[in-house]
Amino acid sequence: MQHFTPVIVAVFFAALVVALTAVARRLPIPSPILQVVAGLGIALVPGIAIPELEPNVVFFVFLPPILWAAAYFTPLREFKANIRPIGSLAVALVLVTSAAVALVARMLVPGMPWAVAIALGAIVSPPDAVAAAAIVSRLPVPRRVTVILEGESLVNDASALILYRTAVAAAVTGAFSWGESIVRFFIDAGVGTLIGLLVGWLIVRASRWTKDALAETLLTLTGPYLAWTVAESLHVSAVLACVAGGLFLGQQLSTAVSPMSRLQTRTVWDLVVFLLNAVIFLVLGAEFGAMLRTVSHETLGFALRTGLIVGVVAIVVRLLWVPIWTVLPRELNRRARREQPPPRGKSVFLIGWTSMRGIVSLASALSLPRLLGNGEPFPYRTEIVLIAMCVILMTLVVQGLTLAPIIRAFHFPAEQTQLEEEALARREALRRGAEALEDMSREPWVDRRDVDWLRTELRDRARLSEHHGGGPAARRRLRAGMIRAERRILIRLRNEGAISDEVLRELEQELDLEAIRAGAGDTR
Description:
Layout: H1 5-26, H2 31-44, H3 55-72, H4 76-81, H5 83-108, H6 114-124, H7 129-136, H8 143-173, H9 178-210, H10 213-233, H11 238-256, H12 259-292, H13 297-332, H14 334-339, H15 345-353, H16 359-366, H17 381-410, H18 417-440, H19 448-460, H20 472-495, H21 501-517
Helix pairs in contact: 1-2, 2-12, 3-10, 3-11, 3-12, 3-16, 5-6, 5-8, 5-13, 6-8, 6-16, 7-8, 8-9, 8-11, 9-10, 9-11, 10-11, 10-12, 12-21, 13-15, 13-17, 16-17, 18-19, 18-20, 18-21, 20-21
């Protein structure tokens, strides 16, 4: 029976994920919080042993596909337009928060070395991509706020992990160089980005060569793991490798694969990301529960008190940083004041308040070495792990539970830009489809009845099965040409900045479904 234990555990977790998701939809509680509580409850059940989580498992199994998927669905146009606020949060705020936490940690624990204190700051400084997406994505948040938060969560892990590894190396070896660390940061970021772009390019080339939906879906699933493995083997930023690869693939996949492949890939990725997100929060709660059973009450009390203070510091630093960095550049730059609309106080506060920590902070804490270079125990390792867990739970519960009421109280106006862009895209796609139909109607293989029928279909999008023309093969060929033309004009509109990636994907999915219904599922 013990041979079936992993299978039984997997089935149990899958059933628990489904049940928690169903319950979360009926309660005003974000599903990540319920999942953390469920994991904590499992760990506290007598007789259940929770193995210590291997940090490499988190970094390799969970993080690459989640970062890759988040980058893939990030609208590149909006990402570029908001690169300044994203950079201020993902790089500058990570450094400022790490320094503030390190200073407070040294005040609370005078014996903690500076390198260890900075490592603690790097652990708790980056808000988590999984937590932010899992909670904010279901709420009526302004599009620009969502883009900034998603963009921040894509990049901040890289800056935090680089700072973390530098601080840990300084703690272990006793040597540290600011100049070397700064140079290393840019090298890690640059080389990691190039690796991600190369992996994305290889996936696109291979997809165009295979022309098989299953193979193309498998290629997209292996991409993040390939990018992560190559970057880690070269000791550069694996996070940015996955982000760059996902962004590149999101821009190129529309022309590289068939409609069937896009629909299948989207479905598979939705399922994978959903399961990984759910399991991450279950594991997070279980690991915290396991730690509670192994440490002394004195150590636990000290860590919880310190974690509460550190969590408050991290939240307050962000709440101060966001409005200052939003207002100050506008005051110093006259051109920015003329070209950019004044910031909205509600949006600024929402960005400052949305800073839940998650699995990256936990994995970083657990990956702290147990021994220094001289063989002595790593200072305050157990306390740091507990402090990180306390900050994670505090931000998830306090900020996660208050986000929905705050957003509802703010009464953000409905977004009109996306609706206008969608209307433009539909008009242009239909116009280009009609032009393509007229061009192809002169071909010798065309039956006039099919042309007339498709002209009618362009007006009302009637189902193809309602008419029988000169032959299904010719009709499929006509419809495939029209869909190809419509998709190309949508891609051109996206590339010119007239519509967003989100509008492109929404209308492209409709065209893909239409192509499959018309028997033109291999249209590229």
